[in-house]
Amino acid sequence: MTDRITLKIFDIVGGPVWVSTEDGQKVFDKITAAFKAGRAVDLSFANRENMITAFLNAAIGQLYGGQHDDGFLKEYLAFRDISDDDRAMLERAVANARRYFANRPAYDQVWQEVVDEDEE
To answer: Which residues neighbour 76 within 8 Å (Cβ) at sequence distance 6 or greater?
Structure first.
């Protein structure tokens, strides 16, 4: 995989506000399509006005779900045009994703217990 492509979140989402998981899923889908096509990705955060963790969880976090290992992602996914604050938010989202996917059944069980308690 030597070919690189720049994906601009602004263009994928259609604007500077990145707050929905649906928009995050669009970004995730573009990244995984590029990987499947044998391309490395430079993901551009240019022109961002607002972004929340839920968006990052969908766009980036689920990349850590096992389809690609950390070494692959470090080599084939780079982040561009990103502020220090946004990088810190991204790093938290990635750390949370790694923890979740490392022990998914336990996290899912706790979540189900909470949901069941709320229904009572």
So the answer is: 1, 35, 40, 41, 68
Would you state the structure tokens that stand for residue 105, as one six-digit string?
């059944």
| Residue 10 near residue 46 (C-beta atoms within 8 A) | yes
- Residue 47: its pLDDT value, please? 97
> CA nearest 96: which of 66, 56, 69, 67?
56
Domain that residue 108 falls in: 4-119
Helix (H, G, I), strand (E, B) or coil at 42: strand
Placement of tokens 């946004």 in the chain? 86
Supply 112's token pair.
């189900």
Pairing relationship of beta strands 4-8 and 40-44 according to DSSP bridges: parallel
Contact status, residue 55 vs residue 24, Cβ threshold 8 Å: yes
Residue 70 CA neighbour count, 13 Å, CB half: 7
45-73 pLDDT, tens per residue?
A: 999 999 999 999 999 999 998 888 889 99
> Number of folded domains in the chain?
1
Task: Determine contact, residues 85/49, Cβ cutoff 8 Å.
Answer: no
